[in-house]
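Model the whole thing, not chain by chain.
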Amino acid sequence: MSISELFSIAIMQGFNGLSTFCVLLLMALGLAIIFGQMGVINMAHGEFLTVGAYTTYVLSEVSQRWAPWLVGSYFLLSLVVSFVIAAALGLLVEHTMIRHLYRRPLDSLLATWGLSLILQQVFRSTFGAREVSAHLPEWLMGSLKPTETIDIPINGLVVMGLTGLLTSAVFLGLFKTRWGIRVRATTQNRAMSGAAGINTRRIDRLSFGLGCGLAGIAGAAFTTIGSTGPTSGSLYIVDTFLTVVFGGTESLIGTIASAFSIAQAQATTEFFLTGSMAKVLTLMAVILILMVRPEGLFTLKVRR
Amino acid sequence: MSMTIEPQTTKAARLLAFSRLRKLELSRDQLGFAITALLLLVVFPLSLSGFRLGMVSKYLTYAFPAIALVVCWGKGGILSLGQGVFFGLGGYCMAMFLKLEASDPQSTSIQSTPGIPDFMDWNQLTELPLFWVPFNSLPFTLFAVVAVPGLLALGISLAMFKRRVGGVYFAIITQAIASVLTILIIGQQGYTGGVNGITDLKTLGGWDIRTDSAKLILYYANASLLLGTVLFATWILRSKLGRLLAAMREKEERVRFTGYDVASLKVFVFVFAAVVSAIGGAMFTLVVGFMSPSFVGIVPSIEMVIAAAVGGRHSLLGAIYGSLLVNYGKTFFSESFPELWLFLLGGLFILVVMAFPNGLAGLDIKRYLDKTRLEKLGAKLKALDPATVAPATMAPGAASPVPPRGGVQQ
C-alpha cells in the first residue's frame, strides 16, 4: 500500500467520522437545549428525529407522484415542514406531559420513554416495520473526486453544511437575541429570572418546541445519508445523551467538541477493529472519562 | 413545616397516634407478606399447570431486580437504568457453569475440539478461554454470581457517588453501561455465545434441571429465595439505615450536614441492589435453561423499572405483583396482540408516572381504612384534650416547662 493510498483512506475515514459527527451534533443540539438548558430528560428525542425523517419521506413520495415540479427542491421544503411538525408535536407533548414533570426529572425520563415506545409503534403501524428511504434529488447524488483515490459523497457535504448552518443559528439565537438572553438567564437562576420579569414557563415551552424542531430538521438531513425505520431515532438516543453530558450540559461549545471527539474516535477505531468493538471502546472511554470528570469537558462557571 | 408551640398533652396524643400508625403499618405489612407467601407457596403450585407454573417461575425471577429497584430507587432515590447489567451478569455466571457441565468431552465428541462449549467450537476457538476456567467449580460460580456484579456495582458507584454525581446523570451512565455490555456480549461471539446467548443447559451438579420435578423444586427455591429477599430488605429498611435512606432521598444535603457519609450510603444501597438483581439472574438461568443478551440491555433494564413502578416504587411486595402483572401482560399481549403491546407498555409508563406514582401499592384499600380510623382516633383524642378545648386561656410558656419544640412534621 502506497503512502498516497494510506492518505486517501485516512481522509475518507475522517470523512466518515464527520458524517457521524453531523448526525450526533444535530441530535445533540436539540437535546442540549432541552436537557442542558432546562434539565428535562426527553427520552423521546430520537422519535422527533424519526418524525422529521418520515415527514421528508412522505414529501418525497408526494412530490414523486403528484408534483413532479417539486422533485428537485422538495428537500428544502421538507427541512421547513419537518421543523414545523416536530416543533408542533413537541409543544403538544410539553403541554400535556412535560410541564407537569419539571420538578421530577427521573419521572420525566420514564414518561418520555413511554412516549417513545408509543411513537415507535405509531411509526410501525403507519409506515411498516421495513426501512424506507426518501428519493434523493439528483443534485444530492454523486460524489466529488479531488484525486483518483479520494471519494467524497455530496450528500455528506450537504449534511455537513446544514449542520454548520444550524449550529451557527442556534449560537446566534442563544447569544444575540432577547430569547437567548432569557433562556440563559433562566438556566443560570430560575427564581431570579422569574423575579426579573421573565416568563420562565413560556421560555421553557419555547425551548422545548425549538429543541424538538431541531431534531425534526436533523431527521430530514438524516434521510440523505441513511434509510428510515421506526427505531432509527432511538438507536442514537444513548449516544446523544452521552454526547451532551460529555460536553458539559450547559455548554454548546462542549457539545460540539464532544460530538466531534466521540464521532472521530469511533471512526478511527472502526478502521482498526470491528464496528461493535469500536463502539464499545468509544463508549467505555466516554464513561470512564465521565467518572473522573463528571462535569464534562466544558463547564459554565455559575454560582448556585 | 411551620414552627408551632404545642402543649404537652397534645404532643403526647400525637406521639400516641404516631405509634399507633407505626403499629398499623407493621400489621399491614405482615398481613401483606402472609398473603403473598400463601399465594406463591400454596395457591400457585396447587392451581396452575406445570407450564403456567414455569411462566410464573420466570416472572418471579424478574421480581428480584424489581425489589432491588424499590430499595435503590423508591427508598434511596437512585434510579438505575442498568439493572439488566447485574441481572445479566448473575445469569451469565450461572450459565457458564451449566454450559461447561453440559459440554463434557463425550457429548461434544463430534466437535473439532471436544470438551469446550459448542459456540466456541463454531467460532474456531480451540481452547477454553482463561476466564471460563474457574467456572468449572460450583462454589466459585456461586461466589461469582454475587461477586462479579457486586464488584462492578461497587466500582461504578464509588466513582460516581464519591464525586457527588447522582440523579439523572447516574441514570444515563447506567443506561450507557447496559448498552455497552450488550454490544460487547453480542460482538464477542466466541467467548459469550453472541446474540443467541448460552443455550442447551442441562444439569446442575449432575441434577437434571429440565424434568418436571426439578422445575417444581426450582419454583419453590425461587419463591422462597424471593420471600427471603423481601424479609431481608424489609429488615434493612426498618433499621436506622432505612430511615437514613429515606432522609437522603428527601434532603440529601441535610443528611450530609448532619454528619452522615451520604456517598457510602448510596454505594451500599446500589451494591445491595446489584447483588439482589444478580441472584434473580442466576435463578432465571436455572429456571429457563438459557441466558442471552436480550435480558441485559437497555430495554429489559427499563422494563424492570416499569415493573417496580407499576407495583409501587415504595413497596417491596408491590414489586412482586408488578413483575407478575407486567410480564404476564407482555406475554399475553405480545402473543395475542403484538401491535398493542408497545402502546400499552408506553401508556403504562406515562400513566404510572403522571397519575399513579405509587403504583398498585398506592391503591391499598386497607391503608386507606387505617388512615380513616387513625383520623377518627386523633379527633377523639383532641376532643378529650383540655389543652385544645381552650388553648387561648393558657400562656404558652406556662403550659410547658421544657422549651417548646417544632411540631411533628408530616
